[in-house]
Amino acid sequence: MGSSLMAAFLLKKGITMILLRSYWTRMQKQSLAKRILVFWGLMIIAGLKWPARYPTSDDKFDWEGDSVLKYPQRDLVIYEMHVRGFTQHESSRAEFPGTYLGVVEKLDHLKELGINCIELMPCHEFNELEHYSYNSVLGDYKVNFWGYSTVNYFSPMTRYSSAGTRNCGRDAINEFKLLVREAHKRGIEVLMDVVFNHTAEGNEKGLTLSFKGVDNSVYYMLAPKGEFYNYSGCGNTFNCNHPVVRQFILDCLRYWVTEMHVDGFRFDLASIMTRSSSLWDAANVFGSPIKGDLLTTGTPLSSPPLIEMMSNDPILRHVKLIAEAWDAGGLYQVGTYPHWHIWSEWNGKYRDIVRQFIKGTDGFSGAFAECLCGSPDLYQEGGRKPWNSINFVCAHDGFTLADLVTYNEKHNLANGEDNNDGENHNSSWNCGQEGELASISVKKLRKRQMRNFFLCLMVSQGVPMIYMGDEYGHTKGGNNNTYCHDNYINYFQWDKKEESSSDFFRFCRLMTKFRHECESLGLNHFPTAERLQWHGHAPGTPDWSKTSRFVAFTLIDSVKHEIYIAFNASHLPVTITLPERPAYRWEPIVDTGKPAPFDFLSGDLPERDTAIKQYSHFLEANLYPILSYSSIILTLSPVDDNA
After folding, report:
1. Terminal CA-to-CA distance of the chain, rounded, Å?
2. What are the TM regions of this chain, as residue ranges (predicted)?
């Protein structure tokens, strides 16, 4: 929104808000939908409408028979991505860079990678000028690039449309629909990252765009003197469990499912949706009083009305619902989020434990094994399944995968905040030297560690999530908080991806394909001893001591017969003894200690047989050597008596 439009907002705001409040009060007996319609009509008449769009009876879109794909969640491989950042870089050669149509142009890349679900960072209309200021470090301007500052929950972001504001912005709706339709054609589900924990209006000193003018005390958590509770860390907190607000949220989500055909949602700072609303009491929430049921504003609820309504809604209960199960107010609910056996969680504990183990920190072998099994320590007791855990090593906030193995410390000077922003505890390891300028041996170790992380993600029970650009090793220069950069820092660099096509991208593509092929790597139930057996350097003797940096296991698989997977996070190599399987032999598939293309011995690799023969003397003795900081996968094949 330009400065002139903002000035119009501020100039007319006072008179308009008086009119809005008057009409709102007089229409209290009307339906919520009718009140909202009148409200937006007055906003338009006053000339205060934020650029937004909504379908009319004249709008037509040919869905070509499309509907939601309804994949079992255990089969998903999720790709977190930013619409603009995906194709805005000049190397994308997209006809419509930085738009929904640009993403459509590159969907085949995701298909090649083995992705069957994309998670779009915020695509609701948001205030991209929230952080607008000159950045003297880079000589450009800071903007709200990520999009966690919603203005209109019923509108797709206009700037992501190649049509812009043409046709009053309504063309953006059809472009978003086109993205969903074309993704579905390729077998890719579409999830939306939605922000119902706060809005773009800020605190009591912030903008007044919509909710503040309608009823400040209804839509936001307020203290008695009008101050804003700030559980979001962004100035205000949406009053999610107020009856009016929760109905608004349900209507919004239903709209995106029924009208836009999205397959589900990831809820940013979802723990806020479990907090009690302002003036919480039973009469306010349920319509009848209960003695002694008065709670402090923001108290966590064991059965939040909003979550219960969503979980039992005839439309929403059949789509994916994923919670970021924490907030900025200190509430951390990973493993304990109210779920009704439907909700999944971004498993932040998986991220932290896997990072610690892979880099060789003592004391994490047992916790790492839990992560490989889908975190039953978090989810089994509550009756949930492995697929309720969304496993990830990296996401939009924090280090990229390449930076995770390149930097010990954050390097956020480009944000213009003297490196004071961003997380200080990243559980990263630079493999011996800080930054990209490093020795050949350090760079080799970094590539090995990247392969280790990706392999771990693909062989863990639960749902793996990959962050955009990690498949080719995108770097942000050690910046772990790139919220404000609409530039190369956040852009997918397609030329770098092409350079790595025979290296890390190939490894990622083949590992994802391997996961899809294996029946045992996407289980509906937590693995038991009937299917899984733990090993150490010798079969059946796992080492769970605090100094152990070795974890290995076998999985019975209906497709591959049996799979042997081992992680050596020690600085020392080891030769392991494989389990004996009469009439079968172990065949190496993956060894992250090997350079490309021998890190993954795919069936179409010309030198595959030669590579296997180099280890035949080990395999014939039921042994296998594993380098330091390496992981392996072997599969079981019947012995050919005629060989």
Report:
1. 72
2. none
pLDDT reading at 583 higher than 70: yes
Instruction: Please report, as a single letter, which amino acid is at residue 540.
Output: G
Closest listed residue to residue 330, CA positions, set 371, 294, 364, 299: 299
- Spell out the residues 6+ positions from residue 222 whose beta carbon is closer than 8 angstroms to its own: 216, 228, 229, 278, 297
324 part of the active site: yes
The residue type of 53 is R
Across 1-5, 78-82, 234-238, 300-304, least confident range: 1-5
pLDDT band at 36 (very low <50, low <70, confident <90, very high): very low
Q: pTM here?
A: 0.90
What per-residue confidence (pLDDT) applies to 305? 96
Is residue 87 within 8 A of residue 94, CB to CB? The reply is: yes
pLDDT at 281: 53
CA dihedral 378, 380, 382, 387 (to 10 degrees): 80
Record the tokens describing residue 345, joined without a space.
């969680």
Rounded to an integer, what distance in angstroms lies between the CA atom of residue 186 and that of residue 134? 41
Sign of CA dihedral 120, 122, 128, 134: negative
Q: Is 268 a catalytic residue?
A: yes
- The catalytically annotated residue of 105, 119, 324, 403 is 324
**CB–CB of 422/479 below 8 Å?**
yes
513-529 pLDDT per residue, tens: 999 999 999 999 999 99
Catalytic residue among 171, 189, 268, 562: 268
Bond before 597 cis per omega within 30 degrees: yes
CA distances for 602 relative to 189, 296, 471, 596, 625, angstroms: 27, 59, 18, 11, 20
pLDDT band at 132 (very low <50, low <70, confident <90, very high): confident
Tell me the C-alpha distance between 123 and 150, whole Å: 9
**SS3 (DSSP) at 452:** helix
3-state secondary structure 271-293: HHHHECCCCCCHHHHHCCCCCCC
* 52 touches 64 (CB < 8 A): no
